[in-house]
Every structure is written in structure tokens, then in C-alpha cells.
Amino acid sequence: MGVAGATQTLAVPRTSSLNWDNPSYRVLRRMGYGITDFEIAQLNQGGIPGYVGRQLKHKSVSDGSLETIVRIHCPLLRRSVTQLMRMSNDEAMSQQLVAMSMMRPVLSKRQVYERMVEFWLDHFNISLEKVEVAMLIPYVMAVRENAMGSFLTLLKATATSPAMMMYLDNYVNYGTSPNQNYGRELLELHTLGVDGGYSQEDVIQCALCLTGWTIEFDDSKSNFGAFKFDSTAHANGNKQVLGRTITASGRAQGERLLEILATHPSTARNICRKLIRWFVGPAVPPDLLAAASARFLTTNGSITEVLKVILLSPSIAASPPKLKRPFHLFASAARGTGMNKWNVAQMTEGLYDLGHFPFLWGPPNGYPDTTAYWSGGLLARINFGFDLAVDAYQSKIPLNNFRGATALSVSQKLEKRLFAGELASSDQSMIRSIVAENPADDNVIRGGIALGLASPTFQWY
């Protein structure tokens, strides 16, 4: 089921044209993958400050039923890299990794946390095109574990990951023949930023600090596939990075490098600028960037402290809508409809057609987060929404969430679940006209859901 002849680009709409009248709802949309009754109930308990406070203490937000589902359906994710490397079933590993990555944003009550996991997996991007899934699984789990802690701890977790060593070639970074690939991306993407004030000599010195950081390839060893430091491959001697002399030796030299980079003012600005663009939009308010960067530096890179500054800023409610990336589109559709089952292979194929397959962005900069990049595939997005509504991906939408005694009650349920009751008048009229044909007919209800998921309003958050 689909729509032909749709315009192929999207322009950023005015908030008023979407009838997004509740500023708190605008903030909720940015912090998660769609507003449900749970978010509204939490909002009513303490407004946005109360909601943000609870979300930033994410481990205290109960996700027990979701954890049970993940344990049952994704048991391989709990295994070590050594255990996974000794398995031969890459397909099962890939399916479970992708299934978990799809389930959690949809079903979790920890919405800010899941948004941060997505953010960091793009920031520290690794692609299945180059890295074995057996290495990628522990990497993803390490990012999840550290997504709301300190930036330094997260940086160290990624830097010592075999997946990162493989992806950016540091496993062949020897003192006798340094490989600069990881050192360059460490500065340009992971920490300081392209405008962070480093030189090519700094790249070289970073690479030298990290010589010997590699992977255990001997499958007879108990740590097969894990990170190891090979002292024989390390370039000994002091290093000069960003005007600082690093006198530590061996593995400690690389660790000291990471400490310097994680606490550098350029890193604070780079990370905070990206976080503001993630939650607020492409126009970064200078005062918010200054405040977030200062908080980053005074708290030694506390991610939750930086998020407090950004998420409690009035800038979010005042910013224009952001275009949902295809994965966000899927997650918000699933949350809005109450969908909790789907065929993982078929759904990921749908995301692949939209250009947003999990863990398949090749370059190290991660999937783009810009309207310009994603606005060209409108027809595919519309068809994706229609396909979801008719269970094309074996996605079982519980229609009882939408059934009602009258056309108005059906329409209002649909509008509340998909849009929190706020949608463009043109979209509302279109949905209500189709539902009015026969509100007792499940196929008509599906038609209303399809129009909602494919509507212009639903493309934004």
C-alpha cells in the first residue's frame, strides 16, 4: 500500500502550522521517540523539570518488563567478545543486536537515555561493513553502559574496544610504522572537533601515544578477540600533544592522552554543540553553548549535568520542528500505534530502503542529523507509513487502541496516540474524513492510521 506522485522534498514547517500549542509537549517530543500516556503522566507530576530529573536518573526508571523481553529474545548480547568470536552464527548475532536496538527505543520508559545511546553510537560510529558483529555487540553494550556517565569513561570504553581498533585500524598501529587513522578521528570527530585547534603534528603524536593498542588475535588465548596492549609495538618516549608533554609510558601514555582530550575546552564545545543540535536544532544559541560547555568543564565531562543545562533551556520549546530520521520515524510510529511486535528482518529491510539501516553507515562521522540530508525521500517515508499501518512488516498494531463508538471518538483516539492531540488542521481533516466513512470497519481504521503515519505533521518532532 502506498502513495504515488508525492513531492520529494520537505521544508521545515512553522510550529504554529502544526498546531503544536503546548510548549511542554514540544520538549517531550525532542527528548524521546514519541509522547505516550506515560510521558504525559510524568509531565503532570512535576512539569518538564520533574520529568527531566527523573529521566536523567534513568536507572531508577523501571524497565523491568522490557529487560525480560531482551533477555529472552537476545541472549547473545550478554556474552563476552571472546565467547562471541568463538561462535559461527553471525546471522543470529546480527538479528539479536538489531532486534534489541529496535525494541529499546520503542518500549523503554527511559526515553532520554535511549536518545543518548543513539547519539553516541553515531558520534562514535562503527560500521558492520568493516567490523565483525562479534566485536560490535560488546561495543554497543559498552556505549549503552556509559551513555549517561562521564565523557572520559565513555571515551576510554570506545578507545579500548576491539571494534574501534578494527574499524579505525589502530590494531595495526605500530611504533615502527604508525597508523594515524584512529588518532585523526579521535581528534577530529570524537573529541576536539574539526575546528578544535589541533595540527597534523598533533595527529602524529596521538597515533604514537596509541601504538600497541591492539587486539588479541591468538584464538588459543583466554582473551581472544579482546583489547590488549602490546608493549613491543609501542613507540617509547615522551610525546607532545596540544602543547602538553606526556611523560607517562606504555599503556598509561594513551590513557593520559585520552584524559587531556576529554577535558579540553575544544572538546567541551564540540560535544555540547552536537548535543544542542541533537535536542534543539541546527541553530545553536551561543549562550546555551557557552553554558553547556562551562558545565561540561566544571563537572569533568558529566553527561547528565550537561543535559540538565540543555534540556531545561527554553531554546527547545522555541526552536523549529526537526525532521525525524527514518529510525526515529519507525520508533515513533511503533510507540504511537502501540506496536510491540514486528519481523526484524523485514523492518530492517524497510529502514534500509529509507537509508537508515542500523550500524551500516560507512564513514566514521555517523548518520547525518540534518533536514537537508533526509528531506529528499518523502515518497519512501509515506509508503513506509502506509506499510506499517497494514502490517506489511508483520507489525501487529493493536486496533483496540483506536476503536470507538463514533467516528469522532475513533479520530480523537488516533490523534491523541499519534500526535498527542496536536496536528495540522489539514492532516486532522484528512484523517477524520476517511474515518467517517465507516468507523466500525477495521480497514477504515487502518486507513486512518496510515494517513496519520504518512501525514506531514508526523514527519516532524
Task: Considering the chains and any ligands shown, give keywords for the structure.
single chain, 461 residues, two-stranded antiparallel sheet, 4 strands
Could you report the average pLDDT, rounded to the nearest whole number? Answer: 96
N-end to C-end Cα span: 25 Å
Q: Work out the helicity level.
A: 40-55%
Largest sheet: 2 strands, antiparallel
Overall 3D form: globular
Proportion of strand residues: under 5%
Low-confidence spans: 1-7
| Strands, count | 4
Radius of gyration: 23 Å
Order of helices and strands: HHHHHHHHHHHEEEEHHHHHHHHHHHH
> Structural class given helices, strands, pairing?
mainly alpha
User: Order of strands across the widest beta sheet?
Assistant: 1-2
- H/I helix tally: 23
Protein model, in words:
The chain has 461 residues and is mostly helical. It is built from 23 helices and four strands. The chain has helices at residues 23-31, 37-56, 64-73, 81-85, 90-107, 111-123, 133-146, 151-159, 162-167, 181-190, 200-209, 251-262, 265-279, 286-298, 303-311, 315-318, 326-337, 344-353, 371-374, 378-389, 407-419, 425-435, 442-454, and strands at 213-215, 227-229, 239-241, 244-246. Strands 1-2 form a two-stranded antiparallel sheet. A two-stranded antiparallel ribbon has the order 3-4. A hairpin with a 2-residue loop joins strand 3 (239-241) and strand 4 (244-246). The radius of gyration is 23 Å and the shape is globular. The two termini are 25 Å apart. The model is unreliable at 1-7 (pLDDT under 50).
